[in-house]
Write a structure and sequence with these properties.
Length: 501
């Protein structure tokens, strides 16, 4: 056996320093990895020799990449080239679009943990329309309330949790609770930053999709990313022009929808407990049985039809015992077997922008969304009500909604920049059972933010009603020991460490 570390991400400043102090060379590019790995299927030489050959003949490697990707259609070779980008000074609205791409890695500046200044994007569309004064007046009012709320909420949180505050190690956590609730008044124009790791295949997709976007900020970002990537790896970023499919499909659908006869609108019932925000709109009807059949299928040599037929004939006790066999060795950091992906649920959610910012990180789910809609109301943090600031909060929201209405008439989609983290949108979330476990572990934990914790709590309640067997160990990391003991009558092998509780 021979194992070789073929390459790894290196800080661009280190690469530049190496270039300055070494003779000029052409092989400082991830393209050689793509080209050498592409040859594995047809060249008998060891991989390390193929890499050496590609480094010695960079132009030949580039031509090979273009032939394999463009002519032969094997885009997967581009996945061996990986880029890291620092995206700084983007609006929260733009970052939502960036983080739609599934097979990438993102780490974002958190408005929960970092106190915000007054940095925000002024959209080019608003400048061009002469609406800058309206926009700036609204944003500054929002930010002023943020700073005021943060100071008052900080005092409120420390007083409410005096016992925790006695230990200085907890002060940053308490301070974060104040920040995360104060941020509900800041806009989607607020600047953020994100570290993005992306392979060349997905980068090409991002560039092509962003080339078709209406927002000027996204097109500017796209041009900058493309210029940087093309300079380093021109042979694996090929399809960059927007296709009509990317640029026209949703607009065509919108026009088609407007031609349909609209149904009568039903009034949205809003119970006081907030359960109106979550609706289970679809699920695998016999989800537990499907998962049981998939488990049986994996460990036998029988057809799925035979396994499913056997499951349908089992008693509830037999089903419970069998599925428990697949869960009994789980620990707080484990998720169910892949067979649990054979059943799913679809939820319609009405969530704040603050909540959506966390929901969008679950990229293995299927998440589609509408634009933010002031008519859906806003989410007011309970702590803001507790300190008697709800009136101030709603006054700023009213000013924001007025500005949004004016901006929408002039700049269309770019009006969304002025909306706040409190504003809501509808989203459609489809998850398989395995992914729901992941969401629950993270978002129902004691450390989870209250808004998404509430939403996911309702989701898991409704999911448990239709698939009780598959979801018997659902819950946050901190509660895993209690949930496990309730199911199995004994403690799990390991417990979450203190920093996860």
């Amino acid at each position: 056996m021979k194992v070789i570390l073929a390459g790894y991400n290196i800080d661009s400043d280190v690469i530049a320093d190496l270039k300055r102090h070494a003779p000029a060379r052409d092989d400082i590019t991830p393209e050689t990895l793509s080209a050498s790995y592409a040859r594995i299927s047809r060249d008998p030489r060891p991989i390390d020799e193929l890499r050496a050959a590609a480094r010695q003949e960079v132009e030949k490697a580039r031509r090979s990449n273009q032939t394999i990707i463009f002519k032969m259609g094997h885009h997967s070779v581009a996945e061996h080239a990986v880029f890291n980008f620092d995206l700084i000074g983007l609006s929260r609205l733009a970052l939502e679009e960036v983080e739609k791409f599934r097979l990438c890695s993102f780490t974002e500046k958190s408005q929960r943990y970092i106190a915000l200044g007054d940095d925000f994007v002024i959209p080019e569309e608003i400048r061009q329309a002469g609406m800058e004064a309206v926009f700036l007046r609204t944003i500054r009012t929002q930010n002023s309330l943020y700073h005021s709320l943060y100071e008052r909420l900080k005092a409120y949180v420390f007083d409410k949790h005096r016992d925790i505050a006695q230990d200085a190690k907890n002060h940053s956590v308490l301070d974060g609770w104040a920040k995360e609730d104060a941020r509900y008044t800041v806009s989607l124009a607020t600047q953020g930053q994100v570290g993005m790791t992306i392979n060349a295949r997905n980068l090409e997709l991002l560039i092509r999709r962003f080339a078709a976007k209406k927002l000027a900020e996204l097109r500017e970002l796209n041009a900058k990313i493309y210029a940087l990537a093309k300079e380093v790896a021109p042979s694996i970023i090929l399809f960059t022009e927007p296709s009509e499919f990317d640029s026209k499909t949703y607009a065509d659908l919108e026009e088609a929808a407007q031609r349909l006869h609209p149904p009568k609108q039903n009034n949205l019932s809003r119970p006081a407990d907030g359960r109106w925000a979550v609706r289970l709109v679809g699920y695998t009807p016999d989800g537990d049985d499907r998962i049981l059949a998939a488990l049986l299928h994996t460990v036998t040599a029988r057809s799925y039809e035979s396994c499913y037929g056997q499951v349908r004939g089992m008693s509830q006790a037999e089903k419970s015992e069998f599925i428990r066999s697949s869960l009994q060795h789980m620990e707080f950091h484990d998720f169910p077997l892949r067979e649990f992906e054979h059943a799913d649920l679809t939820f319609e959610l009405i969530v704040s922008a603050a909540c959506f910012a966390q929901l969008k990180r679950h990229r293995m789910a299927t998440l589609t969304r509408q634009r933010y809609a002031p008519e859906l109301g806003v989410t007011i943090p309970p702590s803001v009500e507790d300190i008697g600031a709800a009136g101030e909060f709603l006054s700023v929201i009213e000013q924001t909604n007025d500005a949004y209405a004016r901006l929408k008439r002039e700049v269309g989609e770019a009006a969304d920049y002025v909306l706040t983290n409190a504003h809501r949108r509808r989203a459609l979330l489809r998850v398989n059972i395995r992914e729901l476990y992941h969401i629950s572990r993270l978002r129902q934990d004691a450390t989870a933010q209250w808004d998404i914790k509430r939403i996911v709590g309702i989701m898991t309640d409704e999911a448990g009603e239709v698939m009780p067997l598959s979801l018997m160990l659902l819950g946050g990391k901190d509660r895993f020991p209690q949930v496990y003991k309730k199911v199995f009558g004994r403690d799990p092998k390991t417990f979450p460490p203190d920093f996860l509780k």
